[in-house]
Write a structure and sequence with these properties.
The protein is of the alpha/beta class and 558 residues long. Helices cover 38% and strands 12% of the residues. Strands 4-5-6-7-8-9 form a 6-stranded parallel beta sheet. β2 and β3 form a beta hairpin. α5 runs parallel beside α6. The longest helix has 19 residues. The radius of gyration is 24 Å and the shape is globular. It starts with 8 loop residues before the first helix and ends in a 17-residue tail after the last helix.
Length: 558
């Protein structure tokens, strides 16, 4: 293990922190950090954390991103860990118009050759991330999505079969790490059987210990054995069957992020995991409303965590000073006997070893959105389109099609994709953003085909960034409006395209002749083209391609 004896206790503790630099206020108002303000750079240099996590707001263009990561390494050291959530599909931080974004985990799981495609996708991701100076990708999700009402995982999962999740997860880890980017499997011990989002609540899983080992823990155990992921990310969830103890001084069952029984007992001792354990973002309400940031970090270090991700939001000089002040507070906890110095030093050694193994030296060659990567992206999208109900008959040239799409951008993307396939189609459209019921009835009456794009469930905070974005999210589900419109269009040829989650399919069985799933409704593709899923869907609808995908999840009965 890497020698840390030359480091002070305070240096070891600082190495165990990974803040974000999403926004910073230098005195003129909060702005996205596209380059490090001097005061922020000075504060980070003084703190010397292991690295940072970047968000969409930090990544405006490729050259700007490269300049920022270069500046971060000049500040934190050439071995700094610079991470991002570049999952593909719904959770994508890099600009889609300039980067190969891919369709996400459930799309891969729907592909017949998903394991091969998953490894190729991860290899392509690694090449593009390293060319931007990023050496950590917080993927893949190993959550077995066994709860159809899961608001935060759904298509971020490979599905509800634990072995399939493990196989595809191992392929992604291998592809990333063979490409010299650290993978971080998540969210241990499994976030798939929850009906709450840990950005907003503290979810609880009610499985038995036997069920947990057979379902939720199995992919982690298998991937650790097969692919040795560099990092494992914890979940802010309660799992009483694995640890029913309470947070000291409260009646709240300890969440996994703070559970020594789960992180040290199960992950380290039972599964033999020797890599770095990192928390999910500690600003999420599931954890931030339980204890102060200092108390949360102390508790997660006591549980066996190596890196506290986003221990508090650094947004101005005051919050930066509070983050710096966290280090002597934690050092005092060590000296008081609440944290073990030997464990802290062993943990810091794991972090140093991770930094050294995935270090970026010099400029990496640019393979950003190269032709082969974009072809792979489209191949995954095309191979994942799944026919859930009905029989496909190609839409004929000159047919009149009316679209009802979730938003203006999705309407534009679907229209453009269909016109690319068949310029002679007569297309009209409305979106739910500017919905007029009377106009909808009139347009449907004139159409031969009624195509309804469904973007359920509503967006989770993770899709747009994190807990900080909760206030920007709406809470109205549009599916009821769409189901009513389809009911009124009886007699027309009705097609439903599930753009993200396949789970709503049964609610449309009696309202449409055809139900298709794409698993990725991202509207923007490379260089302004429609998103890959829209292009794949258009090719299927116009009879240019089959719908070869297979459902990776079990749907409820209609």
């Amino acid at each position: 293990m890497t020698d840390v004896q030359h480091l002070t206790l305070e240096q070891c503790l600082a190495l165990k922190l990974m803040p974000d630099v999403r926004y910073f206020d230098t005195g003129d108002g909060r702005e996205p950090v596209l380059q490090l303000p001097r005061s922020l750079a000075d504060g980070l240099r003084e703190l010397a954390p292991c690295g940072v996590i970047l968000f969409r707001e930090n990544l405006a263009s490729l050259e700007q991103c490269r300049a920022l990561t270069h500046q971060l390494r000049a500040t934190l050291g050439e071995n700094a860990l610079i991470g991002v959530d570049q999952e593909g599909g719904r959770v994508t931080r890099l600009p889609r118009s300039a980067v190969t974004s891919f369709s996400g985990n459930m799309a891969l799981a729907a592909c017949a050759d998903g394991e091969k495609l998953a490894r190729e996708m991860a290899s392509a991701q690694a090449a593009e991330l390293r060319s931007l100076g990023i050496n950590v990708n917080f993927v893949p999700s190993l959550d077995v999505n066994s709860n159809p009402d899961n608001p935060v995982i759904h298509v971020r999962s490979f599905g509800d079969d634990p072995q399939r999740v493990a196989t595809l997860g191992a392929a992604v880890v291998a592809g990333l790490q063979d490409g010299a980017v650290a993978a971080s499997v998540k969210h241990f011990p499994g976030h798939g059987d929850t009906s709450q989002d840990s950005h907003t609540h503290l979810p609880r899983v009610e499985r038995t210990a036997e069920e947990a080992r057979a379902i939720d823990l199995r992919p982690f155990r298998e991937v650790i054995r097969q692919a040795a992921p560099a990092m494992v990310m914890t979940a802010h969830i309660q799992y009483p069957a694995l640890d029913g103890s309470r947070i000291p001084g409260s009646d709240v069952i300890v969440p996994a992020t703070l559970s020594r029984r789960m992180l040290t007992g199960i992950l380290r001792d039972e599964m033999g995991y020797g890599g770095v354990i990192i928390t999910d973002a500690l600003d999420m309400r599931a954890i931030s409303e339980l204890l102060s940031p200092e108390a949360v970090v102390e508790a997660c270090f006591r549980a066996g965590v190596d890196v506290a991700l986003m221990p508090l939001l650094v947004r101005d000089a005051a919050s930066l000073k509070r983050l710096q002040a966290m280090v002597p507070v934690l050092a005092a906890a060590v000296r008081a006997g609440r944290l073990d110095e030997g464990e802290i030093r062993a943990s810091a050694a794991r972090v140093l070893a991770l930094q050294q193994h995935f270090a970026l030296h010099g400029a990496a060659g640019s393979s950003m959105a190269c032709e082969s990567h974009r072809a792979l992206e489209q191949r995954i999208a095309a191979a994942s389109v799944t026919l859930i109900q009905g029989e496909l008959a190609p839409i004929q040239p000159g047919a009149r099609i009316h679209l009802l799409m979730p938003g203006e951008s999705s309407a534009a993307a679907m229209t453009a994709a269909l016109r690319d396939q068949e310029p002679q189609l007569q297309l009209t459209c409305q979106s739910l953003e500017r919905f007029d019921a009377e106009r909808e009835r009139a347009l449907v009456a004139q159409a031969d085909v009624y195509l309804v794009g469904v973007s359920e469930p509503i967006t989770s905070a993770v899709a747009v960034g994190g807990a900080e974005d909760l206030s920007a999210l709406g809470d109205q589900s549009p599916a009821a409006v769409q189901r009513d419109c389809l009911f009124r269009a009886a007699g027309k040829r009705r097609i439903v395209a599930l753009l993200f989650s396949p789970y709503p399919a049964p609610t449309f069985y009696d309202r449409s002749e055809v139900v298709l799933a794409t698993y990725d409704g991202s509207v923007e593709g490379f260089d302004g083209a429609p998103g890959p899923a829209y292009r794949a869907l258009a090719a299927v609808l116009c009879g240019r391609a089959p719908a070869p995908g297979a459902l990776p999840v079990t749907l409820a009965q209609a």
